[in-house]
């Protein structure tokens, strides 16, 4: 990389991009595809940091695609295999998940496929904590394109407020909020919290209890009350 950087001001962006795509990207793909994910055998994950060091020369959308295709399938399989092992210590797996969550560079963190894969891992952790096997279900749906959509113009962004009236239930308010902001709001399969249905609200897991919304905190893996404005922010509404 040190050899190539001086050429950034000499080659045209198109020439540099083509060179990297042909000579560097395949090596990054192979590196992530063969990296040992076992934390007992590979404690530093130097291969990961070596690949991420190309951020800046490799565009964020290309790097997000590489990580989505060559890292996350193996990462998710390793996570599920670990969770389903007879002697699993759940806190160790949670720590491993958090460490990987923190390793994702900010330049690609908000890409839809990156967020979706992290969400899938979090769901596997929660299902395992409920005694469910996580590697025996149907294959996950195809991931969306890695490139995030451009943000809407400021003038077109929806209002954070949600029209409410005294006749609307909390569930109806959430449904209206989800529809207004184009967020998924559906029940999660076979997931209950204290006997109450758990729902997706965008990327967030929520349930309702006595007119209070509870959200799953992905840092502590615990449930906490949440207000409507914060819930929208957690779901990615700016």
TrEMBL record:
One of its GO terms (cellular component) is U2-type post-mRNA release spliceosomal complex. Residues 2-79 form the GCF C-terminal domain. One of its GO terms (biological process) is spliceosomal complex disassembly. Signal peptide: none annotated. Pfam families: GCFC. This is GCF C-terminal domain-containing protein. It comes from Ancylostoma ceylanicum.
């Amino acid at each position: 990389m040190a050899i190539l950087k001086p050429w950034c001001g000499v080659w045209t962006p198109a020439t540099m991009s083509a060179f990297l795509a042909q000579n560097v990207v395949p090596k990054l793909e192979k590196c992530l595809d063969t990296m040992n994910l076992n934390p007992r055998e590979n404690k530093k994950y130097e291969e990961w940091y070596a690949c991420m060091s190309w951020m800046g020369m490799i565009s964020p959308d290309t790097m997000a695609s590489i990580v989505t295709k060559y890292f996350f399938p193996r990462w998710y399989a390793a996570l599920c295999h670990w969770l389903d092992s007879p002697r699993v210590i759940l806190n160790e797996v949670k720590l491993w998940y958090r460490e990987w969550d923190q390793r994702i560079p900010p330049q690609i963190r908000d890409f839809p496929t990156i967020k979706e894969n992290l969400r899938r891992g979090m769901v596997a952790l929660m299902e395992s904590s409920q005694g469910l096997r996580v590697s025996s279900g149907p294959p996950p749906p195809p991931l969306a394109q890695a490139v995030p959509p451009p943000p809407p113009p400021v003038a077109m962004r929806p209002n954070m407020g949600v029209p409410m009236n005294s006749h609307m239930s909390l569930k109806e308010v959430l449904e209206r909020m989800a529809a207004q902001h184009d967020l998924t709001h559906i029940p999660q399969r076979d997931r209950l919290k204290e006997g109450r249905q758990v729902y997706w609200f965008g990327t967030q897991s929520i349930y309702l209890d006595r007119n209070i919304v509870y959200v799953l905190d992905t840092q502590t893996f615990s449930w906490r009350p949440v207000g409507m404005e914060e819930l929208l922010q957690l779901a990615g509404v700016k």
